[in-house]
Batch of 2 targets.
Target 1
Amino acid sequence: MTIATFPPEPTPEQGWGRYFGFCTDAKVIGIQYIVTAFFFFLIGGLLAMVIRGELITPASDLVDRAVYNGIYTMHGTIMLFLFIFPVLNGLNNLLIPTMIGAPDMAFPRLNAVAFWLVPIFGFLLMASFFVPGGPAYSGWWSYPPVSIQNPVGHLINGQGMWITAVALSGVSSIMGAINFVTTILRMRAPGMTLFRMPVFCWTALAAQSLQLIGLPALTGGAIMLLMDLTFGTSFYRPEGGGDPVLYQHFFWFYSHPAVYVIILPVFGIFSELFPVYSRKPLFGYVYVALASFIIVGLGLIVWVHHMFPSGVAQWMRNLFMVTTMLIAVPTGVKVFAWLGTLWGGKLRLTTPMLFCLGGLFNFVFAGITGIMLATVPVDIHVSNTYFVVGHFHYVIYGAAVMGIFAAIYHWFPKFIGRMPYEGLGKLHFLLTFIGANLNFLPMHPLGLTGMPRRVSSYDPEFTFWNVVASLGAFLLGVSIIPFLLNMLSAWIRGPKATHNPWNAIGLEWLLPSPPPEDNFGEEVPTVISRPYGYGSGQPLVEHQDEIERRLALQEAAA
Amino acid sequence: MTSSSTRSINTTAVVGLSFWVGLMVLISHWMGQQAHRWLPVQASTAAPLVDDLFSFETAIGTFVFLGVVSVMVWVMLFNRAEKYDETDAIPIEGNTRLEVIWTAIPFVLVMGIAFWTIRASDQLGTLGPMEHIHPRNPVEEAGGYLGDRLPAEQVEVIARQWSWEFRYPGTTVSSTELHLAVDQPVTFRLVSEDVLHGFYIPAFRVKQDVVPGRAIDFNVTPTREGVYRLRDSQFSGTWFAANQADVVVESAEEHQEWLQKAARAPLQPGLSLAVSEYATRQARSNPGWATVPPAPPPQVNVPGSPAQPHQA
């Protein structure tokens, strides 16, 4: 390459308008995804507050039982389909092209369509609160026959809207997945072989492959459910010869891998950030990269562990227990690699690093309860109890959401061009870490003593731990205030960020902050070494000194 | 990791590390013992097996968790960058021997746990219910009475939105409170009239989904007299949380006595909290979001008491 005109002139301020329109710039789409996701995060969080408000006393006394069921169903649905998947797709949009030196995604218009489906099915789901009979109430699993009972009797009903929204979410995710996979495979910078690719891209590739394999099963299963609900077919209806357990196979064939779609990119975030903030290369890069794909392979053959008490044969229970347990091995490789990275490093406990460390702590705990859940006899006792609720909230909130916060604090300067505030960030971390543990740890003793999940009332012996969990939840609710404050004030008037405020290694840090619309444009640097060359002094790309000098000059001139 | 770089302080490191690992073993063992206290009373033959497995996993899990957290705390205390130190650490790219070790040890560990579990499952004798699943009999579908046709030790459990009904073998007795004789193996025949339900008695450590259109046979042996809770564990709609029943485990003589007394009792409406709550709800001017109406309470000999103290 030549770097005659590098860096490109900063793109002139384009105003706020583009964030509200059909824009094909991946960086705009990324921010659209993330902001939309956090809008729904607040709604889902508000519903969680109502749930914990109801459960602070044994009786069903805050909301009607039907309302409670609708609220817990919508909490789960919103958090998964309208928060966590969109926020991760937002990060994918921001990070994948800049990390691999691509000017944009492979299919920019498809990318924009995939995003705009999110507000559309989000609106559909929100609208279901206002139709006669209220929203779907059968849990985010929507197991038939409960989900096809349609008590209100109308053609337009909450459950039908729910299924339509989930199917649209699937369509959006498939579009996104095609785009991410193609971009990663076809648009890498010269010299960036697969084994010179940042681990975040490896994990994104792994996660998006899972979407492509798994989503058709869920979408097909959902369409059959909609037909049973609306047209009276009998795919799952026992009185018509259908089998309700069949749905569970369709559902979990996708929805267990969906957990890896969520957690793999978070592993990617940990693998990016631990080296930066301990100033050491990622320990065992190749093993960490490959472990993602072992998780993909195993992740596709574990789904029956969600159905141990559903009526499956013992040999099947044993088989799926073994595959489930094997996932601990590649996951362990990653955890030990992060510890190896930290060991002997020069740690900087910045906000993103604290979120990573907290996330790793919670993840290890969740992994241990995960092994317990994999063992059939223990699972039989605690499945469908609060033990499971505690387990997956440790995974999703304790590890994934904390990793996502880490990513936001880490890459905010790059894509917004301004620095977030450390004080507020650390306060946010502290409240999140304490709140999450106070909220989700008590769920384990509750489940072990036999409190089922999804209950709107419970026997008085469960009161103590429920009160603790509710207080933790309210603290978690408060923890979002410093985050929002930080993001808004940093975006409006935070100090200007340099091109590489964390002294990190990676193509995205060789771009101005924020990067110009087509990133490196025609002048993509040639990658000459592996990522994470901390301490070796080896440059990542050709002419790296010159690129950095010019970036610094440009910053000095601004 | 430490062997080459800390050769000079080898003895201190080895002693310190041994001490710490020994302490972690002790703590893990103690946690394993504690684990029994986090579970309900053991009231079936299944319970000790499940609890021992859980205790074992708690001990192993505690050790792994402490190990990881120890490293994290250590590096946060002793591997922090000095103030104003902008330099990088010594680059270590990886170590193949370590990779092999930390792939092999977890592999052996989880396979060991899996082996133990499979053995425990065999002992539990919870044969996969799939072998016992059969389509429901048309007579049964029509509501015909089953008691006389069932094998001697079989209790039929009928789950509905939202009540539990129990019919006893060789008698005409039915109840909405489950009565069992201690130390006597019992086979439940689980059927559902409407949607999925979960047959879950925490004190017995057993759980089995009740699937409409199937009859699932399911064995358990109660081992401890007392009153326990049966809870619906698979979400079944509006009054899911209220779909509970009491399980009374009594001596064989008491059980016979109860059966005889129950056989003489007239049929009356069984317990269904949902039915009374539904009536209150419908009386409101705006009953709220739609709900499936509860099935009428089953007509039984013994409804049981709604406010009986239970042990787990």
Target 2
Amino acid sequence: MRSLLYLCTALAVIALAAWAYRENHLTQQAMNERRALEREIVLLDETISIQRAEWAYLNRPDRLRHLVDLNFADLRLVPITGAHFGEIGQIVYPLPAPRAEFSDTVEVFGAIEHLSAPSETSAMPDGDAP
Amino acid sequence: MIRTPLRPLARILKARASGEDPDLIEQENLRLRREAARDSARGRAEGRLLALAVVFVAAFVVLGARMGLLAATSPVEVSRGLIEDISGARADIVDRNGRVLATNLATHALYAETRRMVDPARAAHELERIFPDIDGTRMAARFMDPNRRFIWIRAHLSPEQMQAVHDIGEPGLLFGPREMRLYPNGRMAAHVLGGASFGQQGVRAAEIIGVAGIEHYFEDRLRDPNQTDKPLQLSLDLSVQAAVTEVLEGGKRMLNARGATAVLMDVHTGEVISLVSLPDFDPNNRPAPPTEGEPADSPLFNRAVQGYYELGSVMKAFAVAQGLEQGTVTPETMIDTRGPLTFGRFRIRDFRNYGPQLSVKDVMVKSSNIGTARIMQPIGATAQREFLDRFGFLEPMHLELSEARRARPLLPPRWSELSVMTISYGHGLSTSPLALAAGYATLVNGGRKVAPTLLKQDQVQAGAQIISQRTSDQIKLMLHQVVQEGTASFARIPGYPVGGKTGSADIPNPHGGGYKKDAVLATFASVFPSHEPRYALVVTLDEPADTTGPEPRRTAGWTAVPVSAEITRRVAPLLGLRPIGLDVANARFQQGH
């Protein structure tokens, strides 16, 4: 009985030691991974900041003005002035969409119920309802 | 220790005498001795167990606490540049719309470790080829100097240069990572940003420290490791700043001015939307401070903040406001303007004779020195001083720039009755364009004090009420009339009614003694839209001259006003203001009174 107890204890200690050894290595691996990730984050951060700086540099007002001057023939961009503001009344009322003319028979695919649905027929009052 | 005998003779003899077995006594004593030994052994064992238990509990508590602590802390990213205790990290600076004004760029510094060099002479020669300003023979001599082991060659390299140095193939030439401060917009807002340079240097990193402007003022905030990933947001608007700079540069060139400055401010929040001072510089390559000549002619000089000038007639608005506020005059009160006004041996004249009398409104519209002096005369020095102090004209105007603390206004040594009169039309008291913009903002925003700021604000400042709403409305109308009827007729812009006041001040002779001949400081302080002002704009030109006519015209109406009008025309749509007809603005004024 007692020797069984000793055996169990010894086995438990061995198992725990194996587990601790494994955990130790997993932890070290995780830490390595973390370091690699941190390096990558630093690198990406650096890249982002370089891209941001470059974007800001490419969009600097001097350069934009120069580009506007260069491309004036095509784009005709001018500084915005008060004359560029519009009134709501100046917006054209949307014209009715041109109606398609059907002379021949029209082939229709799909379920027949959709064609005879009330919304469809009322939208096309002078269409040929089946 | 006294050992009790197992067979004490006295008890044995007594037992023998009474016929008892003496062995019983020995056994009894033996038992007692064993019990004592057992008790002490148990006590020792219990003590050991207790100590062990305490040690275990303590160990587990420590481990548990550490685990809890680890679980509770938030994950932190390593910040770039944080190596060797020297941090090159620095927060970005962005404008009010988030466009980058200043940022950090990762580059590399070049250094040499001479002991690891294989062919110093060739390396020096190749370096000379890459960097034209390096002297190859001198560099070779430094490389071969046995006392030197370590030489800095370049503070930062471009990627192309770095590749070229790589291609030399010299193992003694090494690269150290460096953060570099970059101002992508070049000269734009140079005076606000200031500039930065390297502080403490290590091989792996170098400190970046702000040397002027907002970089210097917010040094601690920008380098705070907890806030380096949060950009510092300014109130400046880059598009507006670009437009103002462009127009002002054109105006300065056309009018042959020595310098020019413009300040655009939100009258309610005090946010400085644009601050330009010309000539300017490139903060990426900040010039050295001048060692000769006038410091005010240096491009580093911020005219809007450091430049305290006698600004002339623009200050009349404050004199008239005080008259209206104290009830000594109304806009319709007639003022005697017969000239010249003699005071001791001093004579006050007008630009031209405006007849025997003018209403207070026309004193403003026609800009009569005599009229303003007469309005101020009965109010007196104490009241005037106190009134101007409330606007902040007697103190250095605070702004988040390190330069703002260094300049202060010039006050008259003795505030006499003559000072009262000259200060009323803007001579004898110096004011910075920034302070003037803040003063005009207060005049037209309903009378609440405005503290200028360069940081983006979320809400309107609840400043102290300095003048009443009624006075503010009257001043607004007068400023509108100055443009519509008076000296600032060039400021009539279709769609954007502007109110403002011109000022053409004589420039004091720098070598002492009176004023310069044929040189004026032309200022136009304006607010727009005039019926309900949202922005105040101050434009100042130093010694401008309009030479398009038969004789040069130097007054503000011909110089500062057209420039200011062009700025307003360009900037108002950028600020999102809808154009409005002049008749609508006039109708609003009618309703207001």
